[in-house]
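Example record used in the benchmark description.
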Amino acid sequence: MSSQIETAKQTKTGFSLMTVRRTVQLAMMSVLGQWAYYGVFRCPYLVPFVNCQTCPVITCWGRITSYFWGFWLLLPLSVLLFGRAFCGWLCPGGFVNQMIGKLSFLKLRKHNRFVKLAPAGMAIGLGAVAIIWFGLNNPRMMVPIRVGELWASMGLSFQHASFAWLVRTFIILGLAAAGLLVANLWCRFVCPTGGLLELFKGMAIFRVFKTSACNDCNACQRVCEMGTRPDETNCTNCGDCLQACPVDAIKLGKKKESE
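Model output (structure tokens):
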């Protein structure tokens, strides 16, 4: 009877946390969703989101928020406090990919060679972004013509873009659509931002982590949208695994050396 009560408590806690996370994601989608849209479809630079102050698209939310430097401090601050939680809680692109992942054919929520090695794709994506941004000075490859209407403006973007911009955009869209085949493919194996956050998330003060009570049953991995385990590669501190552990070996907070 006590075990059933404990299971019910864990399920309720997990459900409540997921409800909070989805609410936060929806809120951030309303705030940053237009920025993400402009970054993919309207940003004239090969690497979006980084040349906002000099961008000729004056209606872009990236250009508007770029003047508030405190906003840019939130991302590194979030890494120091909560690791890669931006991906699991705040990123509008991550939210869209998670919703697409609900319909995917392959969840890849188990240990195998591909799941272990594929996250290296984020390092490749990060390297490509660094070469374009620093090596090529992030060239402007599209004429951002605006007519006021969403679809018409998007159509003009494609009509007046260079071949390089089109290749960049179709790669992003293609990999996002591939999330219908492999759940969260973009976030797990490609995203340069995720790759950058992955490098520094080990410094996080607060995190979801496994304790010494873990028996490697991988129940957490089977419910994880990112197909990983707490405090391992691609863990975004989403907390979905907290109620899944049968031995209560997953905690949320500041990890002690003894745990």
